[in-house]
Structures are given as structure tokens and as C-alpha cells.
What we know:
The complex is a heterotrimer of chains A (about 280), B (about 375) and C (about 290). Chain A has a domain at about 65-235: Orthogonal Bundle (MetI-like fold). In chain A, about 70% of the residues lie in helices and about 0% in strands. Chain A contains eleven helices and no strands. By secondary structure, chain B is α+β, with helices and mostly antiparallel strands. Chain B has two domains: about 5-225, P-loop containing nucleotide triphosphate hydrolases (Rossmann fold, 3-Layer(aba) Sandwich); about 230-330 and about 335-370, CATH 2.40.50.100. Chain B has helices spanning about 45-55, 95-105, 110-125, 140-150, 170-185, 200-205, 220-225, 230-240, 345-350, and strands at about 5-15, 20-30, 35-40, 60-65, 70, 80-85, 160, 190-195, 205-210, 215-220, 240-250, 255-260, 265-270, 280-285, 290-295, 305-315, 320-325, 340-345, 360, 370. In chain B, the strands form four sheets. Chain B has a six-stranded mixed sheet, with helices on both faces. In chain B, strands 13-12-11-14-20 form a five-stranded antiparallel sheet. Chain B has a five-stranded antiparallel sheet with strand order 15-19-16-17-18. At the A-C interface, helix 1, helix 3, helix 4, helix 5 and helix 6 of A face helix 1, helix 3, helix 4, helix 5 and helix 6 of C.
Amino acid sequence: xxxxxxxxPWTFYVxxxxxxxYVLFLYGPMFCIFVLSFQGPQGGLVFPMRGRGIxxxxxxxxxxxxxxxxxxxxxxxxxxxxxxxxxxxxxVSAGLxxxxxxxxxxxxxxxxxxxxxxxxxxxxxxxxxxxxxxxLSTDWWSSALGAQLSWTLPFxxxxxxxxxxxLSRSYEEAARDMGLTRTAxxxxxxxxxxxxxxxxxxxxxxxxxxxxxxxxxxxxxxxNTLPIEIWSMTQxxxxxxxxxxxxxxxIFSFVIIGISLSAVALIQRRxxxxxx
Amino acid sequence: MDGRGTIExxxxxxxxxxxxxxxxxxxxxxxxxxxCCLLGPSGCGKTTILRMIAGHETPTEGEILIGGENxxxxxxxxxxxxxxxxNYALFPHLSVRDNIAxxxxxxxxxxxxxxxxxxxxxxxxxxxxxxxxxxxQLSGGQQQRVALARAIVTKPRVLLLDEPLSALDEFxxxxxxxxxxxxxxxLGITFIHVTHTxxxxxxxxxxxxxxxxxxxxxxxxxxxxxxxxxxxxxxxFMGGQNVLSGVVRSSGDGRAAxxxxxxxxxxxxxxxxQLAAGSAVNFAVRRDEVVLAKAAAAPAxxxxxxxxxxxxxxxxxxxxxxxxxIDLAPGEMNGADEFVAxxxxxDFFAKAIQIGDAVVASWQTGSGRLLTGDANAFPRH
Amino acid sequence: xxxxxxxxxxxxxxxxVVLLVFFVFPLLIVLAxxxxxxxxxGMKPGFTLENYAAVLDxxxxxxxxxxxxxxxxxxxxxxxxxxxxxxxxxxxxxxSKLIAIGLFLVCTVPFWTSNIIRxxxxxxxxxxxxxxxxxxxxxxxxxxxxxxxLFSDFSVVVSYVHIFTIFMIVPIFNTMSRIDRAxxxxxxxxxLSRLQTMLQVVIPLTRNGIALGSIFVVTLVMGDFYIxxxxxxxxxxxxxxxxxxxxxxxxxxxxxxxxxFLIIIVMLMVGIILRxxxxxxxxxxxx
Lengths: 276, 381, 287
């Protein structure tokens, strides 16, 4: 039996349809390149499928014309890990400071917002020029790292604002009541409570770096990161190997996302005991 | 009792960064092992006082003494106080047992020892079955018990409770109220309990401190506050009293004769202040000591009597709350106070009082109490 | 104990250093270079307004700004409508909180994957022999493949909407989640229709989220050059793609002048939105 207030309004069905179309729009194209990457040697860039197999994946790692894929990956992943660690450390530290009042908080906030919205490519040019001015050579672990941090830190900080905004101050006061020092309160109370938020910052730090393109293009020096390798492929490779690469990095991203979200879900479940 | 739980506030003043004065010169003494309630509307400064005793705020001026020692500037943990927070502040990432043992962990007590101490307290608050649960898996009442256990595990000499019952529903509130009282008796330590609910304060506390606008209006026993309010504000805030005014005609020998508007005559006893003839004073009359009689049946108006009309009746179980509109004398203005009589249930129905009835309200001379302080101080609702 | 001021300074210091070294300083260098001389041999320090004159002198610049603003407005409109409807559905129509979070994550997951891959994933769909054209021709709806689907303004906007809508959904979702459900009942009691409730209650209350999302989307479109470069068919279709071409030919000063202009315009737009809405309050003091 349903009462009238239990019945869904017609708008529910309209909006559900909008939502479904949006999700299709979101995932459909990705699914297409996923499917097209598993073609045979005669495969092309469009449907219909010509043959089946993992030919283009093999091609990707064996063929020279697809560039230094392995090298790019061995740079992109360590870079993403470094960015992740720095993003977590710096944004948690600054986020904690923003909970209190300090001089210049307003200016710093707008600087963060500006860094977030400034055209990344221009920033990359500036960083490249800056290194040139100082006679330094650009590289993925120096200039590109800094360029990426100017993008991931604002994101990390915004997440920490949201996380700390929801964190009641009485936790800290309770801990101080019990005689914890400020440092002990941080490690034993605050950080464990906001752990899910920190994982989210880590996820953002890793993936934003791993996929970063605009800021990295002019700052990575002679050796490419993965997105730039893919970019140069879009300029000169016209075979499904580019789809194969897309499929691989997307799967990798999904694994990272899956691990992060599972970790968050696990923590929440432990805290609420909900069997979700 | 060795006096370690005595609390004294001397000239405590607190101004916040934005210039608001939260506590405006408070002097207060709370006996060791007492159950004290700080009572007042929100924004009256009661929570700020609690937080200053705990060490989460620093007074702008004045001293706070715990056990005779000035604790201003001392770290919270060195004060021998423990605080129970309004929303309990239970750590969501720790189990019940770990939450309770947490303070002991901070003291560097080894795991086995602190679990033993925690388990003892857990038993005291009857949570043994839930010791391994996480806070979010508990009901409100259970969370409150965990918070209580966590606060007392360090054996504080003073327990500070910030609106401890406000997050609970009515039924649990009554239950936890008596549990808090029992726990305080068993532990024998000082409890300071902040609340904005009058009935809660008088039900649990030995000492009630009524506050308004950062000042202490009255600090007294629960009965003292309710039955013998010091000021018009306290009388109005606690309820149970009618506030009236008059001009002193004569006074002496603990008696005072007053004249109210329209020539009404009132008498007060039991007050030993010398009142100047011709000065305006306020006094309170207990609502449950007001006797109503139908105007037709009433003899000519004597001392301590008013003519009035019944405007509302509200059944309360053991008594009926009868609200009256006093018949105004020529030129008299309608005051902001309502005049109420608590009529015993049987009496009310025997007299068949109806809305609109003309009645005479009267009381014994001993029922009136002189009030001092601002006649126009009304509680904000 | 460390004094609070020293401690707070140390806490924000890393952030300040990164922002100064990798944000403020590089932009100052771009500003400086925009005044440099250049010739066939390269650039020389100096002070000239020639680069700005060169930028402002060509009709191309204005055409590029016009096309970029067109992209920004179209993308903003599409992402706003989609973002609002999706957020509205998730917040007010999905009853289980768990399912709402799940569906929200479904929207968010692609954000954590590569934008470049997401951009090229339109190629097999929109091309002349792509899925959409073959389907339309196959079913007889059209006889000739549609040309405007790929390498056109259309494909650029499609890709922008594809990638940037999440930046609209998240802020709107956040502000909407904080709306008290009782307001709907109050609105119904006051006799407001569903549409009136949305227009007069929900939209005003989600204003901050909409503003924040708009900042993101507009600046992302203005800051893009690779999507427009690939999907518009290789022509110069935005300021940054022009800057990209200048950089490729080492015309740094002119690229810098062009960039300075762009940044000023972007910051002005953001400034206007910030005047309308207190974004800081929205982001920092959320309680």
C-alpha cells in the first residue's frame, strides 16, 4: 500500500531520465574506445569492429612509433605519488591553520582561488621561462612537479575546508581536557577522524597529477609524462593503439579510484557498523 | 571532602575578540562535592563560565580558584576538571572502550591497566555489553553514558556538564537526569551543570545560579531560587511567582505596608530591610498560594486582594493554571506581567471557575516577598 | 610551547612558498616578458608595448575572443542546466542517502580519469563514419553524414560539457544538500507549484553553488587549448591555442602579451562573480 505522499511525483521520472542520459553521455564514449581497442590488426578508428584481440595493446608496447610509453609511465606514476604526498601534507597543514584566525588568511585564500582558476597553460609557460631565467633545465621532478602543485594544492585545500568545516571543535577540546598535547591531539584525534577526507585529498592529488596536461606541457623538459605522450599520439598516431592506451590508463585510474573509495567505505562502515 | 573540589570565581570578566561582553564581573563560590546548576537563557554567559573553569577560555579579568588554587592560565588537564560536551564529542574512530580509556592513554598508562580502569567505569554506567561498539552505533542515551564514563574515568575533582540533556528526548531526559544525580552522589565530586531549563536545574541541583546578561542574578539552593527569588528577573524567569508593585506606606518590625495602584493594600512580612516611606518596590506572590473566590461570593476587598477576570485556564494535572486580567483602576496601565493562580484541581472544579468569570484573588500576608533589582528585567524567550 | 603565531606561520609556509614560486613569480615573469623585444634571433630584455600593439592590432585576436566567449557561454549554459537538474535529482528525489552517494560517485569517477582520453573518446562517435552518423544514415533519418558533428564548434562544446559538467554538479549538490526539506512543505502550504518552488525557493538558495560552479566552468573553458585544438579541426579557435602556436614558433613576447590579456579578462570575470557571492564564506566557514 502506498499513501499519496509515498508516490513519486512525475518530476522524479523526468529527472531520472535526465540523469540516465547524462550518465550514458558520461560513460558512453569511454566505453566505445574501450571496445574499439580490442580490434584485430585491420582495426580502424571507427566502428564497425574489425577483428578481435589484443593486437593494439601489444603494438603499444612493442612499436617505436607510439613513443616511449613505458618511460612516460615510469615518470608519471612516481610524479603522481610525490604530488599526492605533498598535496596531503601541505593542504592538511594549511587547512588546520585556516581553522584558526591568522593575519593574511584572506589574501592567501584569494591567492589559492586565483591559482585554481588561472589558465594552466600560461602558468606552465611562466614556470618554463622562470627556469630559463635562472639557467635551470626543466624536468618532470622539478618544474613539472611545482606546476602540478599549483593546481593540486588549491583542490586539496578546498577539500580540507569542507572536511574541517564539519569537524566539531569539541573533539579537540575533549582531547585537551584529557591532557593530550597539541601534537598528540593532531595524530590521535583529528587526523584519524578526518582520515576519509585525507584519502579524498590523496586521490585528487594522485589523479590530478597523473592526468595533468596543460601545466605540464611546457615544464616537463625533454622527457614526457603520460598525458603528454598521449597528446603527441593524438597528433600523429591514427591507429587503435591510442584507444588501447586510453583503455589501459583508464583502467589504471579506475583501480586507483576503486582502492580509495573502498578504503573510505571501509572506514565509514567500521564507524557506523552499517552493512552497506 | 577535602575542599579540592571547591570552586571560586572572583571578579571574573570575559570580553570576546569582537567586543561582546559574555561574563560581566561574576563572583561565585561552589562548595566541594556540590551539584551546581548554572541556569539562564542562551547567551547569558553560563557556558562561557563553564568553559573558563575548564580552561577552554581565558577570563579577560578575574581569578578562578579550584581547591583554593588560581587556575587561570593553567592547561585544562592540570585543573582536575573533566568536561562533558553538549553533543558528547565522542571520537567516532574509537570504540566505546577506547573512547573511555583514551584519557588514560594520554597519561601514558599501559594498555592493560587502562582497559581495566575503563571497564570498571563502563560497568558503573551499565554499558558492559556495548563496550566494543562504535559511538555511531549507540542511541542518544547510550552515547550520553559513554560521555559520562569518559569524563569520570580520570577521577576528576570537578565534572563540567554543558547542556548534558539537551540532545535527548523528553523521556530519556528525565531518566538521565536522575542518573546524573545518583552518579554525583556516588562519586562525591563537584558537578557543574549548565542548562537553560528551569525545572531541570531545580530538580538536580543543590545550588542553582541564575544568570542574565553575564551577571549572576541569584545563587541559592533550588528551593531558595524557586520559593524566594531575589529579583523580579529571577521571579519571572523561574515562574511560579506573580510580580507586583507598590509604594511603601510604612515599614518596621519586619513588616511593610504597601499601596498599589487604585489604592489596593498589600502587606509583606519576613523582610528586615528598612524601607523608606514613599519608595516604589516590587514583590512576588507565589502562584500556588493565591486563592480565588467568585466575585459575587467575595466579601469587601481586604488587604492582599485583587479583583480580576479569568482569561485562560490550563489543566496541569494536580492543579489548574488560571490566568487573570486584573481589573484596572482608573488611570492604571496594563503591566507586562501576567497574574496567575495555581488552583488545586479539586478546588478549581468545586468552584466551577470559567473563563470570563469575575473573581477576587487573595493571599496571606506571609506569601509576599520583597524583590530588589531592576523592575523591568524580563527573561528573553 | 611554540607561540601560536609562529606555529600558524609554519603551518601555512609550505603553501605560501609553492604559490609564490610556482604561481605568483611565473606570472610576473610572463608579465615581464610581454614587454620584451624580439626579433628573428629570439627575445631581448627591454620595455616595449609593441607586443601588445601587435596583439590588439589584428582582427584575429578579437575573433578569437569572440569565439572563446561563445564557447564559454554555450558551455556554461549547458553545464548549468545539466548540473542543476542532476544535483536536484540526487538531492531531492533519491530517497536513500546511500544510493544518492553512490550515484554522485558515478558522476564523479570520470573526473579522476584522463581528460585527453575523454576528449579523444568522441572521435569514434562524432566522425563522418562515426557511430552517430552511421546510426542516423542506417536508420534512414538522414542520407548524408552530418559534417558538423566533428571538428566543429559543436564537438568542442560537447567535449567541454562532457568534461566540465562535474564542476557544476559538485558545488550545486553541496549547497542544495543544505536546504531544509521542510521548506518544500512550507512552499506547498503557501500554495506554490513545483515550478514556483524551484524558481523561488531552490534556485535562490543554491545561488552560491551556481556561482562557484560558474567560476570553475568559465575559467576552465578560457584556460583550455588542447580540446579546442583537436576537436575544432586544428584551426585557431581560442586565445590559448593561438598562444600555443606562438610558443611553438618561439614567439614568447607576443604569447606573453596575449596571455596577460587573457589572465586579466579571466580574473575580471571571476572578480565579478566574487562580488555577487561570498565564495569565501561558502568554502571556508561552512558550519
